[in-house]
Amino acid sequence: MTNKLRWGVIGCAGIAVNSVIPGIRQSATGEVTAIASRGLQKAEETAAKLDIPKAYGSYEELIEDPNIDAVYIPLPNHLHMEWSIRAMEAGKHVLCEKPIALNEAEAQRMADVSRRTGKHLAEAFMYRHHPRYERIAEIIRSGEIGELRAIHSAFTFNNAGDKTNVRYRKEWGGGSLYDVGCYPLSAARLLLGTEPEAATVHALLSPEHDHVDMMASGVVEFPGSIALTFDCGMWAAFRNTLEVLGTEGRIEVPSAFIGEASFLVHTSGGTRKEEQPALNQYALQADVFARTVWGEQQERFTPDDAVANMKLLDACLKSAETRTRVVL
């Protein structure tokens, strides 16, 4: 392929510098042509470090560049809606970091703009693009582990000492549910293929960290009496796991969202390891995005999916704050 999707990056966040920009470069379809920061010096330093051709000292300049086809937005959560909408209005396709917005209403506004402008809008859940999740779904459908009974997932890490981190600004969309809890929620919806009915969540709201949820544990009820039990945290030992439990067996994913891709299938016949290729999930995400923009493949995860995930996240946050079961 000679043509490349020309990417601009709005912001110099660690996820952009360390993961997404390298992923785009490893993709078959994309190239990073510009990066913007709120100040020109930071943009120029990052551009020089990563060998990016253009640096802009404002986000506005980048989205007005006619030589950029798509933008990636790794800004703090409270800025996702504004800059996604402004980019789409300026004629750019948008890959927005998760969670796509602060709430369902914001996500819906973004989805509406995507439809009106005809610009592709995607939420950056990179793990969904690795073929292992299609394989997990295939095993579930095959009946090998019997009838589905439950899903459990955990995503935790400890960064509590970094008090200035944007994750600990409540008004900016801080907290573990927004940052890592959204992964188990989206994974359960993906594997079950249905939308949840209710959520009950308990959280550790830390005064030291602007009262954001530093740890949360919950139950999400799905149709058919199936539940997701999950926990997420930013003040706990590292884990990123997923287990699918059936009547005749279970699927164990030791590194569910980042890390080694292979997983285990346990049945009465024994345990086998499902070997999976070591693929760059960020590169896969970039290729799916570009091929969707070019009309080479159907949009797999629509903006409506992002809206639905925010609806569930809203319910989890409300449950944690009110200590009640929230019906969706």
TrEMBL record:
<protein>
    <submittedName>
        <fullName>Gfo/Idh/MocA family protein</fullName>
    </submittedName>
</protein>
<dbReference type="InterPro" id="IPR000683">
    <property type="entry name" value="Gfo/Idh/MocA-like_OxRdtase_N"/>
</dbReference>
<dbReference type="Pfam" id="PF22725">
    <property type="entry name" value="GFO_IDH_MocA_C3"/>
</dbReference>
<dbReference type="InterPro" id="IPR050984">
    <property type="entry name" value="Gfo/Idh/MocA_domain"/>
</dbReference>
<comment type="similarity">
    <text>Belongs to the Gfo/Idh/MocA family.</text>
</comment>
<dbReference type="InterPro" id="IPR036291">
    <property type="entry name" value="NAD(P)-bd_dom_sf"/>
</dbReference>
<dbReference type="InterPro" id="IPR055170">
    <property type="entry name" value="GFO_IDH_MocA-like_dom"/>
</dbReference>
<feature type="domain" description="Gfo/Idh/MocA-like oxidoreductase N-terminal">
    <location>
        <begin position="5"/>
        <end position="122"/>
    </location>
</feature>
<dbReference type="Pfam" id="PF01408">
    <property type="entry name" value="GFO_IDH_MocA"/>
</dbReference>
<feature type="domain" description="GFO/IDH/MocA-like oxidoreductase">
    <location>
        <begin position="133"/>
        <end position="252"/>
    </location>
</feature>
<keyword id="KW-0560">Oxidoreductase</keyword>
